[in-house]
Design brief:
Chain A: Its main location: membrane. The complex is a heterodimer of chains A (about 300) and B (about 375). Chain A is mainly α and about 300 residues long. Chain A contains 14 helices and no strands. The radius of gyration of chain B is 23 Å and the shape is globular. At the A-B interface, helix 3, helix 4, helix 10, helix 12 and helix 13 of A face strand 1, helix 7, helix 12 and helix 14 of B.
């Protein structure tokens, strides 16, 4: 029983950063912007979070720093693609490349240093209830934040007027513009929200998942988050489901390696990436579903005419 | 409070299309100077070590050519993809598979020697890269799966596969347990161009030939026209009878084959055996090279040399100043950023507008209308 609980807990820990980053990107893409820089913003969040936590000794300050660093880094993308109307694919890629380089440089002095870890929630009495106690009341704070974030984004996108406006911009920026909606302003806010989420996800990696700094520690999670958004066909609750499936694959292959299954570890390690491809194929086979949900102006640059 | 406003130019500016890479380079230099100053190094001294010293002697120019060759080879292939608005960003994986396929002969059949070995290896390398690139192309055409994500995921898979090969079945039994294959025999090593002067090998020649060939194709042949039409207006392309699926396969196989050729050239020329890591991110840096070279094969040759210099400079500042060689990655990333930003100037004029300023725009608008 304890083993099952432990496995479930580790799956949640592996799924949380994917969920947070993907939910952020979902909002960005719903506004019609494709930010391929998730991996870069995530790794910047990770190094910023670790650094601030390490220097101040407070994981909470680290977490705050991760969010701020992610948001600032995404601002770079926003200025380029929204104010200068650059190609979103290329700009997103350069954000990732720059993030990987910059984080490696900043993090040189952090390698091998002991980090600080966000403490798990612990409520006297409740957290020690067998089985469900630790699952519901004993996880790291970001687990709860990630679930709350998903619910909040669902409510925002589908139950509020602003959310509706955001979605309409994603579907047709010219119509939205013609109606007098400040397309660029909405998109700026969406991109910065996505950056803050990616930064927070990175902070989870270096403050909860493995509280230390390792170069390239995001290991493609930013890209998997991007794939999750497609997999979820831009629906928040499906992002949640997808993140947990991927968390399970990630943890499953780690456990398989630990149990000494006679398959080379490299093959097991490549499972999450292969699973991403398989899942993308399965979901995009259904053309109608994808066509129906893809924000129609996704990735198109928009220059308001006067 | 100021605000940027873009004003569309009536036609693309020829001036800025030439100037933009240079402006971008200048801006990167300024940002780089700030970066070095923040790191507590005199920027002038750092620039000297980073950009001048690594190319001040003949043997160093050979090192530059070694680094530039894979970048140019990969980037000219990618430029065709990007021109067609098809996004292969998994060249790093295709590079690795090219290296692996090409190494089949020297690793598994080391007794096979002679003048045929090298051409076969190069051919196999291209086949390997092309086959690996065919996966995202197939998934895109059959299931309309996003090629950006699939080609990228395959990079991680390729890296792990290579890691398994050199630690497992292909490991040199006499290698004292090091994760590497046997050293390639003499007939499997790409010859150096001028062995007396430096290490540069035939890979650089391949890169130049590929650049010229692709330039001819893009500017003088129907295929190139097709690529450009598909990229700028897929609808017009469909009316002209150009097949989209064919175009996806063509661009992916071409760029995959060139990345594969770069991979086996690197393994057989610069390294001489397979190791767990055979590329310092060439496949990704080549994306920057492609854009810095304005997606033009001849521009890419120049851009490849510049980006190769950032690698050498990164190594130089690491050994001379103790700065992480990741600084090279930062320079590369900044350069791409500035290039993309400056490209805006080709199509738009940028105006700074004070938010409080009154809008007197009727007159110029009338003029534009005429």
């Amino acid at each position: 029983m304890d083993i099952t609980v432990n496995i479930l807990l580790t799956i949640a820990t592996a799924a949380t950063p994917l969920l947070i980053a993907a939910i952020g990107e979902l909002v960005v893409e719903r506004s019609g912007v494709l930010n391929l820089g998730v991996e870069g913003m995530m790794i910047m969040g990770a190094v910023g979070g670790f650094g601030a936590g390490y220097l101040t000794g407070s994981p909470w300050i680290g977490l705050l720093a991760a969010i701020i660093v992610g948001a600032l880094f995404s601002l770079l993308f926003a200025v380029m693609t929204l104010s200068l109307a650059t190609n979103q694919v290329a700009t997103g890629l350069s954000l990732t490349l720059l993030g990987l380089g910059l984080s490696g440089m900043i993090g040189t002095s952090f390698v091998g240093q002991p980090g600080v870890r966000l403490p798990n929630l612990s409520i006297p009495g409740l957290s020690s209830i067998p089985v469900v106690g630790r699952l519901i009341f004993g996880q790291d704070p970001l687990f709860y934040i990630s679930i709350a974030l998903t619910a909040a984004v669902m409510w925002f996108l589908f139950k509020t007027r602003t959310g509706l406006t955001l979605r309409s911009i994603g579907d047709s920026h010219s119509s939205a513009h013609a109606l007098g909606i400040k397309v660029i302003r909405y998109r700026y806010l969406a991109v910065i929200f996505g950056g803050a989420c990616a930064g927070l996800a990175g902070g989870h990696l270096s403050l909860v998942y493995t509280p230390q700094w390792v170069e390239n520690m995001s290991a493609g999670r930013g890209w998997i988050a991007l794939a999750l958004v497609v997999f979820a066909s831009w629906r928040p609750w499906r992002v949640l489901a997808g993140a947990y499936i991927f968390g399970a694959v990630w943890i499953g292959q780690l456990h398989a390696q630990a149990f000494g299954i006679p398959v080379p570890s490299q093959f097991l390690s490549s499972l999450p990436y292969l699973a991403t491809i398989v899942v993308l194929v399965l979901i995009s086979r259904n053309k109608r579903l994808t066509m129906m949900n893809t924000p129609a102006s996704l990735g198109q640059p928009f220059v308001p005419d006067r | 409070m100021m605000r940027l406003e873009l004003v569309k130019r009536p036609q693309r500016s020829a001036l800025f299309s030439v100037l933009s890479p240079f402006i971008a380079f200048a801006l990167t230099m300024i940002a780089g100077a700030v970066l070095f100053a923040l790191l507590g190094v005199n920027p002038l001294e750092a620039f000297n070590i980073y950009f001048i010293q690594p190319v001040s002697e003949v043997w160093q120019l050979h090192e530059l050519a070694i680094k530039a060759a894979p970048l140019i080879l990969i980037a000219v292939g990618l430029s065709v993809c990007y021109r067609a608005n098809i996004w292969n960003i998994g060249a790093e994986g295709q590079f690795i598979l090219g290296g692996i396929f090409g190494s089949i002969i020297p690793v598994l059949f080391p007794q096979f020697e002679g003048p045929l070995v090298l051409p076969l290896m190069l051919l196999l390398g291209m086949v390997g890269g092309a086959l690996y690139a065919a996966i995202p192309a197939l998934l895109k055409t059959r299931f309309s799966t996003n090629e950006i994500l699939t080609s990228l995921m395959l990079v991680y898979v390729a890296q792990l596969f290579l890691d398994w090969l050199v630690r497992g079945p292909w490991r040199d039994p006499q290698g004292h347990g090091f994760p590497q294959t046997i050293q390639f025999g003499d007939s499997a090593v790409l010859p150096e161009l001028m062995p007396d002067a430096g290490r540069a090998n035939w890979g650089f020649v391949f890169a130049l030939v590929a650049a010229v060939a692709i330039w001819l194709m893009m500017s003088r042949m129907l295929k190139g026209f097709e690529v450009r039409v598909m990229g700028s207006s897929p609808r017009a392309g469909r009316f002209a009878g150009f097949g989209f699926s064919k175009m996806v396969f063509f661009t992916f196989l071409l760029s995959g084959a060139l990345a594969g050729l770069a991979g086996i050239s690197e393994v057989s020329g610069a390294i001489g055996q397979l190791q767990p890591v055979i590329s310092p991110g060439y496949g990704f840096t080549a994306i920057i090279v492609a854009f810095l070279g304005r997606l033009n094969p001849l521009g890419i040759v120049a851009a490849g040399l510049v980006l190769a210099l950032t690698y050498l400079g990164g190594e130089a500042v690491q050994s001379a100043l103790g700065i992480s060689d990741k600084v090279a990655r930062v320079f590369q990333g900044m350069l791409l950023f500035f290039v993309l930003g400056c490209d805006t100037l080709i199509h738009y004029r940028i105006r700074l507008i004070g938010l409080a300023a009154p809008k007197l725009e009727a007159a110029p608008k009338l003029e534009e209308a005429r």
